[in-house]
Specification:
CATH topology of the largest domain in chain B: Phosphorylase Kinase, domain 1
Shape of chain B: elongated
Order of helices and strands of chain A: HHHHHHHHHHH
Strand content of chain A: under 5%
Helix content of chain B: 40-55%
Radius of gyration of chain A: 22 Å
CATH class of the largest domain in chain B: Alpha Beta
CATH superfamily of the largest domain in chain B: MucB/RseB, C-terminal domain
Distance between the termini of chain B: 67 Å
Number of domains of chain B: 2
Number of strands of chain B: 7
CATH topology of the largest domain in chain A: Arc Repressor Mutant, subunit A
Number of domains of chain A: 2
Oligomer: heterodimer
CATH superfamily of the largest domain in chain A: Winged helix-like DNA-binding domain superfamily/Winged helix DNA-binding domain
CATH class of the largest domain in chain A: Mainly Alpha
Structural class of chain B: alpha+beta
Structural class of chain A: mainly alpha
Radius of gyration of chain B: 28 Å
Order of helices and strands of chain B: HHHHHHEHEEEHEEEH
Largest interface: A-B, 65 and 47 residues
Largest sheet of chain B: 7 strands, antiparallel
Number of helices of chain A: 11
CATH architecture of the largest domain in chain A: Orthogonal Bundle
Chain lengths: 221, 275
């Protein structure tokens, strides 16, 4: 019933704000449906991978679309609607799932990590061992490994590798420079590979002496 | 280009998101440097792995419908008659009505069963079983009367199935019943005598016939030893209460109980087909 009250409020606001004729309202609705609905698949997949379940993903998408419709006047025709919708969803996601936001002044973890990553030249395991992980990995394991990534890395990996977005698009969605997209993606994939390697090790796909698998934790540097 | 510079553009090289000059420089380095070459190969494989393993999923059908309904409601400025957040409910209503009448009968039955437990110390086996079932009946009844809404109602059995797997705290058995369609599912802890693990109730419907399939892990189910013995021997205990029939059986891990407004014989026939 909460939603119903919300909607009532919207309507009241709507009528107070501007006096639209019925034709204008209908036109607005048609416009919204034609522009915004085609991007639902993209948004839903992102929401699903971020929240990890259908219920939350559905809630997030519903909230996003209702908000978008409410603020449809704020959207400038001809600009990137997909990015606009994505940002609305991102805000809803943050409000819902990340109540405790990063404290201000915190060092950008991403950039620091990446610096060390590129300076340091050692790998977390020997390459021929890494090769083996690709053979026996199933969807569930990839999803689990993905879920373990810190949010900023998970976001770019989902957008690039699952949803097939270009760097330019991702940069616009997330309001970050293309260089950052590049580095987060590199780092994110590497961390994911490390997680997968841990699975493979645990499940015994990889054989050998235990000391061969003494992984250095790249996160602790 | 050195190793550091190469690593910076490695993802871009894998994704071909790179200008020609930088690409050439990076490739030159990779050609010479085995470490960076491996790193490049691994990144490429990782990308392919994610892309091929994690599939895009389709939007749940009811989601689009819900959003459109809500938008149109905002638009029309109209309110009370529309139900939000629930699926197109009209289709569900007829069975709720049928279930209502079944439910009324069941209330009477379960009440009388309570009386029996109070006044009779020794119950016949038949009554004993009926008592076991009465909790389930009353749950069925409260759903039918709308006191409790099944957590899941959908037109699409696949949606119900995936939701059930997601929410259940054990692996339930989603039985296919010929000619019956799964229309909903509920979870309830109260009558299972176990607060920890919930049981699963699947609701099947065919016209005005309903089957309510209740499941709980056998080791959690607190049922009478005599009944337990009988079902662990593989017996399916069929019986009826008034116009309604039920059956209790075990699958090894699960205790199953089906309640229906079919006759005992019909229920037996239907379940034999689906077993």
């Amino acid at each position: 019933m909460k939603l119903k009250d919300k909607i009532k409020e919207f309507i009241k606001q709507e009528k107070k704000d501007r006096k639209l004729s019925d034709e204008e309202l209908l036109k607005r609705q048609k416009e919204f449906e034609a522009e915004a609905l085609p991007h639902m698949q993209f948004l839903y997949n992102f929401a699903y991978r971020m929240t990890g379940n259908e219920e939350d993903a559905k809630d997030l998408i519903q909230e996003t679309y209702l908000k978008a419709f409410r603020f449809w006047d704020k959207y400038e025709p001809g600009t990137n609607i997909k990015a606009w919708l994505f940002k609305i969803m991102k805000n809803s996601y943050i409000n819902k799932y990340r109540k405790a936001t990063k404290e201000p002044g915190k060092v950008d973890y991403d950039e620091v990590q990446n610096f060390y990553e590129t300076v340091r030249d050692e790998s977390f395991e020997t390459s021929d061992l890494q090769e083996h992980i690709f053979e026996n990995i199933f969807e569930d394991e990839v999803i689990e490994a993905l879920a373990k990534l810190p949010e900023e890395f998970r976001t770019v990996v989902i957008l690039a590798d699952i949803e097939g977005q270009t760097y330019e698009e991702i940069a616009e969605f997330l309001d970050i420079p293309i260089g950052t997209v590049r580095s987060r993606l590199h780092r994110g994939r590497k961390m994911l590979r490390k997680n997968l390697f841990e699975f493979a090790k645990r499940k015994g796909y990889i054989k050998g002496k235990p000391e061969d698998y003494d992984l250095k934790d790249p996160d602790k540097d | 280009m050195d190793c550091r510079q190469t690593r910076e553009v490695l993802s871009a090289l894998v994704d071909n998101e790179i200008d020609e000059t930088t690409k050439r420089e990076a490739e030159e380095h990779i050609w010479r440097c085995a470490t960076c070459r491996t790193e490049f190969e691994l990144e490429k494989k990782t990308k392919d792995l994610i892309r091929t393993r994690v599939k895009l999923i389709n939007i749940p059908q009811e989601l689009v419908q819900n959003i459109l309904t809500q938008i149109r409601t905002i638009q029309d400025g109209y309110e009370s008659s529309v139900k939000f957040k629930t699926d197109p409910n009209q289709k569900v209503k007829p069975w709720l009505e049928v279930a209502f009448s079944v439910g009324v009968a069941l209330v009477v039955i379960s009440l009388s069963l309570v009386l029996i437990t109070v006044y009779e110390n020794k119950m016949a086996q038949k009554e004993l079983i009926a008592k076991e079932v009465s909790g389930i009946l009353s749950h069925f009844d409260s759903i039918a009367n709308g006191f409790v809404k099944p957590e899941i109602i959908s037109d699409d059995p696949n949606i119900i199935t995936s939701q059930v797997y997601l929410k259940a705290e054990f692996t339930p058995w989603v039985m296919q019943i010929p000619n019956f369609k799964m229309v909903g599912a509920s979870f309830n802890a109260r009558h299972s005598n176990s607060e920890i693990e919930k049981c699963v109730n699947l609701i099947y419907r065919s016209g005005d016939k309903l089957i309510f399939l209740h499941q709980i892990p056998l080791h959690r189910a607190r049922i009478h030893e005599d009944v337990k013995k009988r079902i662990s021997k593989g017996e399916w205990i069929y019986d009826s209460i008034g116009d309604d029939s039920f059956v209790i059986w075990g699958t090894g891990e699960l205790l199953c109980c089906a309640v229906s407004n079919l006759s005992k014989e019909e229920l037996e026939q239907v379940l034999k087909q689906s077993w």
